[in-house]
UniProtKB/TrEMBL annotation:
Chain's role: Catalyzes the dismutation of two molecules of 6,7-dimethyl-8-ribityllumazine, resulting in the formation of riboflavin and 5-amino-6-(D-ribitylamino)uracil.
EC number from the UniProt entry: 2.5.1.9
NCBIfam families: PRK09289.1, ribE
Keywords assigned: Repeat, Riboflavin biosynthesis, Transferase
The protein, known as: Riboflavin synthase
Pathway this chain belongs to: Cofactor biosynthesis; riboflavin biosynthesis; riboflavin from 2-hydroxy-3-oxobutyl phosphate and 5-amino-6-(D-ribitylamino)uracil: step 2/2
Domain Lumazine-binding as annotated: residue spans: 1-95, 96-192
Pfam assignment, any one: Lum_binding
InterPro entries reported in the protein's UniProt record: ATP_synth_asu-like_sf, Lumazine-bd, Lumazine-bd_dom, Riboflavin_synthase-like_b-brl
Length: 195
C-alpha cells in the first residue's frame, strides 16, 4: 500500500524480456535502503524487489501488468517515480494507493499557468463512474486531485514541487500515463452495480 507521495526518481538502466515477462533494472538514490521482497511503486506500478546490486535493483513485470500499464513503452533511460510502501507510523499525506494500475490514459492537453501546470488526461468512457470533481487519483503513482471532469477526461494541476520532483516535467502530449482510480470509489461503484 502507498500514499502517492513520490520519494525519489529512478532510471531504467536495463530491460530483459523473459518469456511473457519483462525484468527491469532500476537505479535510484534510495537503492541502499531497499530489501529483497519489498514492494516498491514505479510510476504507480507495484513491483517486488528481486535482487540488489550496488546502486541498482531488479523487478519483474508479468503479462497482466504489462497489459494494464505503460511499462511496454519504457526503455533504457526512462525516468520513473519511486515510492516505497506505506509505513503505519507516519502520516498519510496523499490518499490510499495500492499500486494496482487500472488502465492507462493519454495526455491530451497541457497548459503552463505561470507557476503551475495543468494536464488534461483522456480515458476510456467506461471508467467515467470512477472519477468525480475534486476526487483523488493516482497518475504515474502521484496522488493528485482532479477537476474539469467530463465523460472521458479530467484535468490535474501540478504545483512546482511536484513538477520538479516527479517525472511530470517530462510528460508530453499523447504520452500514456498509468492510472489507479480511488479505491473507495471503486468499491462503491461495484456495490452499486450489484443492486
Amino acid at each position: 500500500m502507498f500514499t502517492g507521495i513520490i520519494e525519489q526518481l529512478g532510471t531504467i538502466t536495463a530491460i530483459e524480456n523473459k518469456d511473457t515477462n519483462v525484468t527491469l533494472t532500476v537505479k535510484t538514490p534510495i537503492t541502499h535502503e531497499l530489501k529483497v521482497d519489498q514492494s516498491v511503486s514505479h510510476s504507480g506500478v507495484c513491483l517486488t524487489v528481486e535482487s540488489i546490486s550496488d546502486d541498482t535493483y531488479t523487478v519483474t513485470a508479468i503479462a497482466e501488468t504489462l497489459l494494464k500499464t505503460n511499462i511496454s513503452q519504457w526503455k533504457v533511460g526512462t525516468v520513473v517515480n519511486i515510492e516505497r510502501c506505506l509505513r503505519f507510523d507516519g502520516r498519510l499525506d496523499g490518499h490510499i494507493v495500492q499500486g494496482h494500475v487500472d488502465t492507462v490514459g493519454k495526455c491530451t492537453g497541457y497548459t503552463a499557468k505561470n507557476g503551475s501546470w495543468e494536464y488534461v488526461i483522456t480515458i476510456d468512457e467506461k471508467f467515467a463512474p470512477l472519477i468525480i470533481e475534486k476526487g483523488s487519483i493516482s497518475l504515474n503513482g502521484i496522488s493528485l486531485t482532479i477537476f474539469n471532469v467530463t465523460k472521458n477526461s479530467f484535468t490535474v494541476a501540478i504545483i512546482p514541487f511536484t513538477y520538479e520532483h516527479t517525472n511530470m516535467h517530462q510528460l508530453q502530449l499523447n504520452d500514456q500515463v498509468n492510472i489507479e482510480f480511488d479505491m473507495i470509489g471503486k468499491y462503491v461503484n461495484r456495490m452499486n452495480s450489484l443492486k
